[in-house]
Design a protein that fits this description.
The chain is of the alpha/beta class and 210 residues long. α4 packs parallel to α7. The chain is globular, with a radius of gyration of 17 Å.
């Protein structure tokens, strides 16, 4: 029996997944949480084999949670289930510690197969992304840009695009504010902009274009 934790900030999504998995005898849902902090708190207190989680949380973004899980709970397998484009976030999610990435448009059978696969030690990615990783190709220049970002740069960019301030980013990522400013400067150079507003706007446009 695979012990599955569901993490999504939408109650309807969590409830829907609980109902779907109640029909299988191979997977048991041991909990449902709504943010990144709750994920870490739950796994400290309860045995979990696989986590099926979103990337956008009001407390601790998904990439930060993945880094904590990879460091403190390496035996737990994490699959991302997100509406965010795979081309933009999947590679950095894998770098941060995820072993699978699914778009929320996939069917229940695919989700079930992904959970079974990662529990057995495999990695689940779409055929398109698997080929891109294998042959070093990308479908467009926006994807290439995101591939070049470090996991930490992706974390900072993601938090900036949802309106986090330097102090808030510093606290969430456990780095000092000066370091946050350094990452912002790097991102501005890579996106070829001169101010924060343009950085955020360009990042959003890049995501939408993928």
């Amino acid at each position: 029996m695979i012990r599955l934790l569901i993490a999504d900030n939408h109650p309807i999504t969590r409830k829907g997944l609980e109902v779907l998995f109640s029909l299988t005898s191979e997977i048991k849902i041991v909990g449902g949480v709504e943010d990144g902090e709750a994920i870490l708190d739950f796994v400290r207190k309860n045995p979990v084999d696989v986590i099926l989680m979103e990337t956008d949380f009001p407390k601790l973004n998904g990439l930060t949670v993945l880094r904590h899980l990879k460091q403190d709970f390496p035996e737990i397998k994490t699959v991302i289930l997100s509406a965010q484009p795979e081309e933009v976030y999947a590679i950095n999610a894998i770098k941060a510690g995820a072993v699978g990435y699914l778009n929320k448009s996939v069917n229940v059978i695919t989700i079930n197969e992904a959970i079974m696969k990662v529990h057995e030690g495999g990695i689940h990615l779409s055929n398109v992304l698997t080929q891109q990783l294998a042959f070093g190709t990308r479908t467009n220049k926006e994807g290439t840009f995101y591939k070049k970002l470090s996991t930490r740069e992706s974390e900072v960019l993601k938090l900036l695009t949802i309106g986090r301030k330097n102090k808030e980013i510093s606290k969430e990522l456990d780095i000092n504010e000066k370091t946050v400013s350094t990452y912002k400067a790097r991102l501005m150079r890579k996106l070829k902009v001169n101010n924060l507003v343009d950085l955020v706007n360009q990042a959003k446009l890049t995501q939408e274009a993928v």
